[in-house]
Amino acid sequence: MQVTANGINIEVEDYGKSTDPAILLIMGFSAQLVYWPLDLVNGLVESGFRVIRFDNRDVGLSHKFDGQEAPGPIKQMLVKKFFPRRNLAPYDLHDMAQDAVGVLDALEIDKAHIVGASMGGMIGQLVAANHADRVHSFTPIMSSTNAPDLPGANPEVRKVLFRAARARARNPEEALESGIAFSSIIASDEGRARTEERKELLQTAIDRCFYPPGTRRQMAAIIQTGNLRPLTQTISVPTMVIHGADDPLIPHPCGADIAANVNDASFQLVEGMGHDLPPSKLPHMVELIAGHCRVA
Q: What is the pTM (predicted TM-score) of this model?
């Protein structure tokens, strides 16, 4: 269903009983809501929670910022470094955090447990820091504070990521090919072995919405927002950080940095998990998230 959030249309899927405590799932860079596995969603519902997943702006069925140009990632990073006050991005992660809060408003949810993956965990940090009155608890997964002293992706992953951010896929077939190549680089061993499942998920997302320009604007938003650590240090809600031990895109010290900068936060390192949500790890993920939410 479509809701109006922060002045734009956002596609939302709502699971479970409206009377149960709400968990808001925020997905990562260029990823549609379908990338939240239904086994995770259903497991959390069965654990007694109402679960909401939604498309971020510029992906899936949510609002597209057509006509608003964003520079490529290399130019954006150079401008950010030498002209930090100059804004080249049409929006930043603060705007996307307002979208998430707007989803809660549209669904008339006063407070929710916030769970964010990758870029969604960055957005979640802003929600938890700036809208603590709307947050029961916070769980970032495979995310980062984006602090400049943290390790980055390995060179091969960075190269493929920047290529994707330039939005050069001219048709769905090229998008599928590049998506398979990228997912195989960042996935766990289990994820890489599930080639057909990865291909099926990518095809589902492409069939649902093929829109390359959105990825460029979302990348610009991440770069424009920059270092989150000063705001992360102000988070006061109960926080549990989950990170894959084998993540080559956002190495696990980045997740540990979130935990280190939030008072009383816990850190859960998941062996055998890359920058993905492997099916065999989902029961453990449900247990961790549901347990954290109950305690909070």
A: 0.94
